[in-house]
Write a structure and sequence with these properties.
This is tRNA/rRNA methyltransferase. The chain is of the alpha/beta class. It folds into two domains: 92 residues, 60s Ribosomal Protein L30, Chain: A (2-Layer Sandwich); 160 residues, SPOUT methyltransferase, trefoil knot domain (Alpha/beta knot), CATH 3.40.1280. The chain is built from eleven helices and ten strands. Strands 7-6-5-9-8-10 form a six-stranded parallel sheet, with helices on both faces. Strands 1-4-2-3 form a four-stranded mixed sheet, sandwiched between helices. Helix 8 links the parallel strand 6 and strand 7.
């Protein structure tokens, strides 16, 4: 059992707290039983799993599965696990998982022609917002979520926790040039909806039964003029006069479920 917080493995785990460390190691940090179960369910490659004796006693079958499927499974003291984790009260297990190239996967060139519903986000900074959006997009069976390269890392520990495990279920894509990607969708005939507070069209007035991409912007600045120009339509969510804006993750949820509401009459829920 590892008992020293100065063990080299602790240092490696702690480096994954930061984007630089994740890029250098091409790995990311998983914390908690639920995320670990989700990773195993989709056979996401893990390189190291560390757990306390108490956790192993609580989840003996899961620990056996980890030992059989993971190159390195270590028993560690609670103090060592605490040093590895980003959470204040870790539940007894952390893991190192293999990163997708550039932080996530990349779409095929012809993928635009098969999309029915997607979310594209520009310069998103809050990991909790991104994780919540991932969870919601997965709940409505969206085809994927596209993120501009200057946004928060999609495998930030807080993103993974906020996604409640749906990070492993929803395709995520990193876009070096999101405007170029939006123009590609537009040429393929997709409807591109820019969420704009000053738009004259209410979001439920749009016909969202056709293949649609929802564009969402930075928490403070919103969408860039280039992306607004690239969209095929603009829509707003009505607010009381005293309210300036909605949280971006709430906006995403309203838009995505309006798509599903309109489509329920013509297609079966997945």
């Amino acid at each position: 059992m590892l008992t020293s917080v100065k063990n080299p493995l602790v240092k490696l785990m702690r480096q994954l707290h930061q984007a630089k460390g994740r890029r250098q190691q091409q790995q990311f940090l998983l914390e908690g039983t639920h995320l670990l179960e989700e990773a195993l369910a989709v056979q996401h490659p893990l390189t190291v799993v560390c757990s306390t004796p108490t956790w192993q006693t609580r989840y003996p079958e899961l620990w056996q599965k980890i030992q059989a499927q993971t190159p390195r499974a270590e028993t560690v003291s609670p103090e060592v696990l605490q040093a590895m984790a980003t959470t204040v009260h870790p539940d007894g297990v952390v893991a190192m998982a293999v990163r997708h190239p550039s932080g996530n996967s990349h779409p095929d060139t012809d993928q635009a022609f098969s999309l029915t519903l997607g979310v594209a986000v520009e310069t998103l900074q809050d990991p909790g917002n991104l994780g919540t959006m991932i969870r919601t997009a997965a709940a409505v069976a969206a085809d994927g979520l596209w993120l501009s390269a200057n946004s928060v890392d999609s495998d930030h520990p807080k993103v993974l926790r906020a996604s409640a495990g749906q990070w492993f279920r929803l395709p995520l894509y990193s876009c070096a040039d999101l405007t170029q990607q939006v123009n590609q969708w537009r040429r393929a005939g997709l409807q591109i909806i820019a969420t704009q507070s000053q738009a004259s069209t209410l979001y439920w007035e749009l016909d969202l039964r056709q293949p649609t991409i929802i564009l969402l912007g930075n928490e403070g600045a919103g969408l860039s003029p280039e992306l607004v120009e690239a969209a095929t339509a603009q829509a707003c969510i009505p607010l009381a006069p005293s309210v300036e804006s909605l949280n971006v993750a709430v906006t995403a949820a309203l838009m995505l479920y309006e798509v599903r509401r309109q489509r329920l009459k013509t297609e079966a829920w997945p």
